[in-house]
Amino acid sequence: MKRSKPDTDHLISKTRQHIQRLADTLSYRLSRILKTRHMIKGTIYIQKKRCGNARCKCAGGELHCATMLSLSHQGKTRLIPLTKYSGVELMQIRKAVKEYQGFRHNRAEAVSDFKRLIEQINKLEQNLLIEVTPKKGV
Ligand SMILES: [Zn+2]
């Protein structure tokens, strides 16, 4: 059997370390995903507008502000004013929106970590292969 060259041994060791690091990162991403409780697929923003009353302060440029939740559901956008929600409810909604953004971020990172992990596993496979040559004689 043909033993691997010292530089291959070094490469194998480096690749093993790389795989372990990627597995740790992936494990962290998955733990974040698994910890997610409730999420809202949307964004919160401040809507500024004029009410239409010519004698209102907004006619002079001081626009009305409303906190809005923009929800996306099956390709459609729904706008929900958050003005009537209590402080606690608003906090829960903000948290759930943030959870969704974190979830999506971790999901995207997990996809790329996983791709890199497979690349490294393939690299390890190539470097671990040894050759077997037939022996001469009877
Ligand atoms: Zn107005």
How would you describe the overall organization of this protein?
A hairpin with a 2-residue loop joins strand 2 (64-73) and strand 3. The protein has one domain (6-128). It has helices at residues 6-35, 87-128, and strands at 42-49, 64-73, 76-81. The longest helix has 42 residues, at 87-128. The protein is rod-shaped and about 105 Å long. The chain starts with 5 loop residues before the first helix and ends in a 10-residue tail after the last helix. The chain is of the alpha+beta class and 138 residues long. Bound molecules: zinc ion.
Layout of helices and strands:
Elements: H1 6-35, E1 42-49, E2 64-73, E3 76-81, H2 87-128
Antiparallel strand pairs: 1-2, 2-3
The structure holds zinc ion.
- Taken from the alpha-carbon principal axes, the silhouette is rod-shaped
Please give the count of helices: 2
Number of strands: 3
Listing every helix as H and every strand as E from the N terminus to the C terminus, the arrangement reads: HEEEH
Rounded to the nearest angstrom, the distance between the terminal CA atoms is 18 Å
Beta strand %:
15-25%
Question: What is the count of distinct domains?
Answer: 1
Indicate the structural class: alpha+beta
Low-confidence stretches: none
Major pleated sheet: 3 strands, antiparallel
User: Which oligomeric state applies?
Assistant: single chain
